[in-house]
Design brief:
two-stranded antiparallel ribbon; alpha/beta; single chain; 2 domains
Length: 653
């Protein structure tokens, strides 16, 4: 029974604008001298952003602001955003308790102990800072990078216990800077625009504002740069090289570019929810379009004439079917976020099952349609000449009529494929499915592809990336503390089985497609060999008749048969070669083999990380492996598109 998709598309997510904020601390002299003006400038900027969002024609979710909640710029911006009804997502560099304690800047071990235990600090100034953090985080979604908390706390205590020990202080500061820099990278990955209050002076301090700005630009995220000394004027940068360009202090704020960035982030040309709602999911493969898979089975090994019917997993059943293990892992993650498991089961996996089923049917229609054209072209030639060996010259018009109908069928098939957009729709839904296929492994560990590094193409062809990016980003960061136990559970239970399964799939696919290619080659060669033999047989018979070895009339009587064979075999061979070229089985096999090798390397790296020293299992290491998985998937999609991108359904010329 056909199933439409409007519920998943409209109800499970809405595109939203994602912002990141970074800036100087309250202790920065320039910031403290202009804090009132900076606050006013941020309020005006956020109001302008809201006005632009409200002017957009399509439905959208609330603006989501990402902040590390460091005192100064981060906390001011977070308070303004919350007052405007924005969502606040906070990638903390440490666990919540340790983060609150460090950012309250206690000077005594007693205050450290109190803050870590959740008690008020004895120093009023320290407690005021801690209270401000508590107040804001109570309304925020916290993503706590807590895997190195014990190590950081030990170094911190050592540095406080021995103020003169500069080595201990440097070790603590270095580790803190690394974690802050990594939390900043998590923020950048999810942002359409980074807003930075920065004087432009220091850019090489890990975790600092300048370092975050440079990192964002290098990752493809635009940066709205506010000079703390002149916060009413700002400029937008898109490339790291722009940092070295002279600044015109009298230049007006670039409102047009700001609006363009926001519109491009939330809307995309050619996209609307109805675009996917018009597609129909069906529970099984089409009986009419199975010829491509029949070719794969005949030449790749298997039962030639067995049933080709494939039953697709229903979107509503995947959470209890093939996705059950992933959902179980999500629900049992140590200190995990139940919301993530819920969204995987109710939104992300059903969207994948839907896109996969639709893409499979469209692939069958497009690829089988082209192979039907090749088959009809072969039959047209063979039927057009079949009256010769059958001795039915008086009924040539019957054979000619059948030939005409076959040629008309080719034109009709080509026109139908073009009008119904089989190629275009297959490409789009297959990309959506592949992006969503490995999404659970990313989402459980809070990893996404940076906004600036998604594949880009012109016009309506961009919508699958737009859809997948927003669908995944809508889930947001897990509201969890990423301890080493959490990381181990995610890698062992979710990421490693997924990588191993995909590696095995690609290896099997590569072997099957390479076999199909080889056997099609051999079959085409055999057809040409038979053509040569049929011509040689006729010439031999003709010569033997001339020499008197056989009756001369044999050659004349068998001439129609040899003529038919001399045309039929090359035609069949040429069309088998055409099917091999169109299917590009060898290149597809090579793409899958390369993907399998990349996945094998990632699988080995994950295994080594899990079996190594516990201290080596950090969020940075785990995220690097998941990014490698994401990159392998995107590269495989790009290679697949490069092969089939220009192969539209066409006449088999």
């Amino acid at each position: 029974m056909p199933v439409s998709q409007p519920t998943l598309i409209r109800d499970s997510w809405q595109p939203h604008l994602a912002l990141g904020i970074t800036g100087h601390r309250a202790t920065n002299p320039t910031f403290s001298a202009h804090s009132g003006a900076i606050t006013a400038a941020l309020e005006a900027l956020f109001a302008k952003i809201d006005a632009i969002c409200e002017s957009l024609p399509d439905e959208r979710g609330a603006v989501r602001l990402h902040s590390l909640l460091v005192d100064g710029t981060d906390q001011i911006a977070a308070s303004i955003g919350l007052a405007r009804g924005w969502d606040l997502a906070v990638p903390l560099p440490f666990g919540a308790a340790l983060n609150r304690a460090i950012n309250a800047h206690p000077r005594t071990i007693a205050d450290v102990d109190a803050l870590l235990a959740g008690r008020p600090a004895g120093d009023p100034a320290v407690e005021a800072k801690a209270a401000a953090i508590r107040r804001i985080t109570a309304s925020a979604a916290l993503f706590e990078i807590a895997d190195r908390d014990a190590e950081i706390e030990a170094l911190w205590r050592a540095s406080l216990a021995a103020p003169g020990d500069h080595a201990a202080a440097r070790a603590f500061e270095a580790l803190v800077s690394d974690n802050v820099a990594f939390a900043g990278k998590v923020m950048i990955e999810r942002a359409d625009l980074i807003i930075a209050v920065w004087d432009g002076k220091v850019a090489n301090l890990p975790g600092g504002t300048g370092h975050t700005v440079v990192t964002a630009l290098a990752m493809g995220a635009p940066v709205l740069l506010i000079d703390p000394a002149r916060p009413e004027s700002w400029r937008i940068l898109g490339r790291p090289e722009e940092l070295g360009q002279p600044v015109d202090p009298d230049a007006p704020a670039d409102l047009e570019r700001l609006e363009a960035i926001i519109r491009a982030a939330v809307n995309v040309e050619g996209w609307s929810p109805d675009l996917l709602a018009r597609e129909r999911w069906r529970p099984r493969s089409s009986r009419l379009f199975g010829l491509y898979r029949r070719i794969e089975r005949m030449f790749g090994g298997g039962d030639w004439f067995g049933s080709l019917k494939i039953t697709y997993e229903a979107p509503g059943a995947i959470a209890e079917g093939s996705g059950a293990q992933m959902i179980a892992v999500a629900r049992t993650m140590p200190g995990g976020d139940p919301r993530i498991a819920h969204q995987l089961a109710d939104d992300v996996m059903p969207m994948y099952a839907w896109a996969d089923g639709v893409a499979n049917r469209l692939a069958d229609a497009y690829r089988s349609g082209m192979i039907v054209n090749f088959v009809m072209a072969t039959l047209a030639v063979m039927v057009g000449l079949a009256y010769l060996p059958l001795g039915m010259g008086a009924y040539k018009w019957v054979f000619a009529t059948i030939e005409l109908l076959l040629l008309a069928g080719i034109i009709a098939m080509t026109a139908a494929g073009s009008r119904l957009g089989w190629h275009r729709r297959w490409f789009a839904t297959r990309r959506v499915a592949e992006y969503l296929r490995h999404a659970p492994a990313l989402l459980l560990l809070g990893v996404v592809r940076p906004t600036g590094r998604w594949p880009r193409s012109g016009g309506a062809a961009r919508w699958p990336e737009h859809f997948a990016r927003h669908a995944l980003r809508d889930v947001g960061l897990p509201r969890a503390a990423l301890t080493r136990d959490y990381l181990r559970a995610g890698l062992e239970g979710a990421v490693l089985p997924h990588v191993a399964g995909q590696r095995a799939y690609h290896l099997a696919k590569a072997h099957r497609l390479e076999t199909v290619h080889h056997r099609l080659d051999k079959a085409a060669e055999a057809c040409f060999a038979f053509a040569i033999l049929s011509v040689l047989a006729y010439l031999g018979l003709k010569g033997a008749g001339a020499l008197g070895w056989v009756p001369k009339h044999w050659a004349a009587e068998l001439s129609p048969l040899f003529t038919f064979l001399g045309v039929a075999f090359p035609t069949l061979g040429a069309n088998l070669s055409g099917i091999r070229y169109f299917g590009d089985f060898e290149r597809f096999g090579a793409i899958s083999r390369v993907a399998a090798e990349k996945l094998r390397a990632i699988e080995e790296r994950i295994t080594l990380l899990l079996s190594g020293e516990p201290a080596a299992l950090t969020y940075a290491a785990a995220a690097d492996l998941i990014h490698a998985l994401d990159e392998a998937v995107v590269e495989e999609i790009a290679s697949w598109q490069a092969v089939f991108g220009a192969k539209h359904l066409a006449l088999p010329a």
